[in-house]
Amino acid sequence: MPPGVARGLTRFLTDSYGLGLGRTWGHTDTVIVVRVWIDQDLCTGDGLCVDHCPDVFVQLEDGIAYVAERGEILNDPGGSGSLATVIPRHVVSVLEAAEVCPGECIFIDIDDMDTDLMPATDAVA
Ligand code: SF4
Fold first, then answer.
1. Of 59, 67, 106, which is best to mutate to test ligand 1, by the most ligand atoms within 8 angstroms of its C-beta?
2. In CATH, what number is assigned to the domain containing residue 44?
3. How far is the CA of 113 from the centre of ligand 1 (A)?
4. Is residue 85 part of a domain?
5. 39 lines ligand 1 (CB under 6 A)
6. What is the largest CA-CA distance in the chain?
7. Segments forming the whole domain that contains residue 106
8. Could you report the per-residue pLDDT of 84-102, keeping only the tens digit for each?
9. Top mutation candidate among 39, 41, 43 for ligand 1, by most atoms within 8 Å of CB
10. Ligand 1 center to residue 22 CA distance, Å?
11. 5-63 pLDDT, tens per residue?
12. Is the pLDDT confidence value at 105 over 80?
């Protein structure tokens, strides 16, 4: 992620959805869902992402970083099962990790989702 993009995304989320530390995330009947995945082919294994958010990024014995969701490591490179939902309190640190990632291999998906379609998770704080 190029420098400044994380800051811009954070600003967008804050302005549009009231995202902020200790604040409710979402408005009316729509919430925003942030997901993250890593292209392991590009990962340098330096561990900066783990330093930024160890609840979301983990390094396995192969030295490569993977994402985790609710404590479960999603280590299926290239598979759809490697897309982790980011809970609100980790969004800023995940965006910052994506910005500093030297491999530029942390990818963020941001979607609006109707609350009626939301699974019952802690993704909506
Ligand atoms: S910051 Fe990027 S390159 Fe470094 S370990 Fe994490 S995903 Fe891999």
1. 106
2. 3.30.70.20
3. 28
4. yes
5. no
6. 44
7. 5-112
8. 999 989 999 999 999 999 9
9. 43
10. 28
11. 666 776 666 665 555 433 345 555 667 889 999 999 999 999 999 999 999 999 999 99
12. yes
Instruction: State the amino acid at position 73 in one-letter form.
Output: I
Pairing of strands 30-38, 57-59: unpaired
| 69 Cβ neighbours under 8 A, 6+ residues apart | 56, 84, 85
Ligand 1 contacts CB of residue 1 (under 6 A)? no
pLDDT value at residue 75: 80
Number of domains in the chain: 1
- CA–CA separation, 46 and 48 (whole Å): 6
Taking the CA atoms of the chain, what radius of gyration do you get in angstroms? 14
Q: How crowded is residue 117: how many other Cβ atoms within 10 Å of its Cβ?
A: 9
This prediction has a pTM of 0.74
Residue 9 is assigned to a structural domain of this protein: yes
Q: What whole-number distance in Å separates Cα of residue 2 and Cα of residue 15?
A: 21
